[in-house]
Amino acid sequence: MWTGRQVVVGVSGGIASYKSCILVRRLAEAGARVDVILTRGAAEFVRPPTFEALSGRPVLTSLWEEGTSLQHVRLAQQAELVIIAPATAHLLARVAQGLGDDLLTTLLIARSGPVLFAPAMNDEMYAHPATQKNLATLRSRGAHFVGPETGALAEGPSDRPGRMSEPETILLHAGRLLAGRRPLAGKRVLVTAGPTREPIDPVRIVSNRSSGRMGYRLAEAAWERGAEVRLVSGPVGQSPPVGVAVTRVETTAEMDAAVRAALADSDVLIMAAAPADYRPSTTSPSKRPRESGSLTLALEPTDDILSGTTRLRRPGSIIVGFALETGDAVTKGRAKLARKQLDLIVVNDALEPGAGFDVDTNRVVILDRDGGEIEVPLASKREVAERILDAVEARLER
Prior knowledge:
Blueprint: E1 6-11, H1 17-29, E2 33-38, H2 42-45, H3 48-55, H4 71-78, E3 81-87, H5 89-96, H6 103-110, E4 115-119, H7 123-127, H8 129-140, E5 144-145, H9 167-178, E6 188-193, E7 198-199, E8 205-206, H10 213-224, E9 228-233, E10 245-248, H11 252-263, E11 268-271, E12 278-280, E13 299-301, E14 318-325, H12 329-339, E15 344-349, E16 361-368, E17 373-380, H13 381-396
Parallel strand pairs: 1-2, 1-3, 3-4, 4-5, 6-9, 6-11, 9-10, 11-14, 14-15
Antiparallel strand pairs: 7-8, 12-13, 15-16, 16-17
Helix pairs in contact: 1-3, 1-9, 4-6, 5-8, 10-13
């Protein structure tokens, strides 16, 4: 994504400017051509040679440097993205008022392409009505923002926004902006992930070995392609993907209700979860003692979430199912594709080494309702997610 892309990183005078060193390094390592512009205040926190070493390019600090006339106009027009990190309260105020009193603010006035601000300041300064008005003004002009977040500030802990987002988070938001107008951009995508748990008693459950990795990789990849993503997640140990709204559920019935609530507004449903197929016919209100001896458990089927969505789907929406089978997976997947009226189904064999539950890799076959078949060899689940989304985008473009 980043190879050969031209990016300007503007650094204003805040203590969080040390994080911008990491951001510049990450961009350069990814192959981007990074031009760094420091305000006078920023150069007091981190000296220009540091950024020059990290970017491999000269660092710009002034409108008046010899040989840099019209540099602000050239960079404003040529850069594919401008990132301001940190964006202090002072800088935001100057930009909102249209001031051009140094190289960075002059460039921003000349800029018509995307600008991503990463605000960073004291929490009181961020909450101040003047700062909030400046932020609203910039948003109304099309500016993009990442953060700020809660957490430790220079003066101590805080539970209110003010802390600059981490470089990795800024990089993800920047990549999303550079993704452009992909078919998924602006689409509402609903993804399910993980297992569900059906209680036997307050301690014991019926569940399965799903880790949620596949669903989480799909959610993060869809968001990075510009989609608005809602992830309905069973109990897993995965960290929430950046930018993705997460609804956490426990039982199959709860997942069913969450999917139904979100489906009417969704352009794409990707049912990557592995909800429990059975639940105990009766649930004990108290833990059954081990000393009671053998336990016979009567099970009944849970509702089929995907089949139940048929009448709720939006016209023109794309519905993707998963089929984890043991033996003759493609034949069984093709039958499931037709039975559940899906556009695509992702099929894999639970017995194949390196695929299936609780591993970082997968090997799948993507079937479509028109008879198409795409084989995805063993790869990371993130790579598999990208191939699945390629197939979704292909259908959206029809």
